């Protein structure tokens, strides 16, 4: 039991160290020797848990995708309006990116892998589908005034999320969610007359 506990702790230390390395350097630039050093382990100890950089990356991508599906499920709540549900999902994604290093690494790695293969990340496709679904529901409820072009809205939210993420230094990630919200509010105020918007997206935080 003691040996199993030690192995579990080592596994967790390696995941934390790898998450920091992948966020800083991306998949291609990540170095397993630095990961081992960050976890205060030898490279041999690392290989006892993960025999390749790809397996280490997958160990972060898979939980990210699972957590993202859980966050996305909040869009199916029936006790909130479509605009409130979109705000909930967007806030949840921004909040996890801000606070959860492993989730951030999974986001980074999934995005990098998708770009290398010339496609959108699965979660980005899912998010766009979520926006379209909520817009359709808003129209059925007679609330279409705030969602004139849901495809445009979905793309804009993704661009804002990616833009803020890739222009925010690691030391500033504690303000990531607020930065996404503030930028969104500026876009809404600057184009209220002509652009689609969900004014409730960034309410009181």
From TrEMBL:
Residues within the DNA-binding region(s): 31-50
Cross-referenced Pfam families: TetR_N (PF00440)
Molecular function GO terms recorded: DNA-binding transcription factor activity; transcription cis-regulatory region binding
SUPFAM superfamilies (UniProt xref): Homeodomain-like (SSF46689), Tetracyclin repressor-like, C-terminal domain (SSF48498)
Annotated ranges, domain HTH tetR-type: 8-68
Alphabetical UniProt keywords: DNA-binding, Transcription, Transcription regulation
UniProt-recorded name of the protein: TetR family transcriptional regulator
Organism expressing this protein natively: Streptomyces corchorusii (Streptomyces chibaensis)
